[in-house]
TrEMBL record:
Residues in the signal sequence: none
GO biological process, any: DNA-templated DNA replication
Cellular component terms (Gene Ontology): DNA polymerase III complex
Keywords: DNA replication, DNA-directed DNA polymerase, Nucleotidyltransferase, Transferase
Protein name per the record: DNA-directed DNA polymerase
Catalysed reaction, written as an equation: DNA(n) + a 2'-deoxyribonucleoside 5'-triphosphate = DNA(n+1) + diphosphate
Amino acid sequence: MKLSSREAEGYFAKPDADKAGLLIYGSDAMRVALKRQQVIAALLGPNAEEEMRLSRIPGGDLRGDPALLLDAVKAVGFFPGPRAAFVEDATETAAPAILTALEEWAPGDAQIIVTAGQLKASSKLRKAFESHRNAYAVGIYDDPPSRAEIERTLSEAGIRNVPRDSMTALSELAADLGPGDFSQTIEKLALYKRGDESELNIDDIEACAPRSTEAALDDVLNVVAEGRSGEIGPLIQRMQAQGTTAVSLIISANRHFRTLYACASDPGGPAQGIGKLRPPVFGKRRDRILRQAQGWGAPKLETALTVLTDTDLALRSAGQTAPAMALVERAMIRLAMLARAR
């Protein structure tokens, strides 16, 4: 039987131990793996591997030894409780062995859990699970996690006191991060809030969310955007000593000033524009970017982007004679002076 995305979310949380099997397939291996981890944990409990109630079989091994899966399905365990035989990264070459095990399955056997990449509608594996009366097939697509999924992830991590604005911020973050990065962010949040029973606020999320640039780059770009020209030289020297290149610095500056321009040029004003940024920004960083966008305004930011584009072209020019970092430093000072101009 085929499960829809909404039906699948409920099934992953409470799988049926009496079913013959489950196929989880999708193009994003991380999303598939996270769902597989969830369903196996819910089906077998926390000590399945220690109690030898879970058999792991690489899909490629079934080509050389087709009986491997059927043996695992029929094996009698030493410990009581539900059992599962998990086939990882199955392809069409593993289909004969999996289909045989599915046909031979009987009540009391280990449940067959199979993960695979993207499968066509004509796939033998997909057809077998979708047409089986006692098995399920679920396609995992690159959709952002639902609110229910986010709430479940937070609950599993022990984070329960989440107000509405923080949940909104987490939903925006989940929509822009990959599933692995979002899962790691929640783990960091759980450690960050350990022993702290207060509400999860935006500053907590900002402290744990992955940053798109290094902190040192953020420092120099904020100094430039805020017109503090006297601090630019020492910061750039420090970054150069740490191995930062002129090209990477100019690329980051372009990105930062394009972000400011996107806010400042929004028809609804910077306060509305910052809410449309992807990936979203939170907490103190959001306030800082908003202040910078309001202070610069769209016309001056257009000039700033022109300066950065000209500098980028000069860096990449075959006829460049000046030191690359000196060109960047001069451009940054020009921008800082422009920020202070009225």
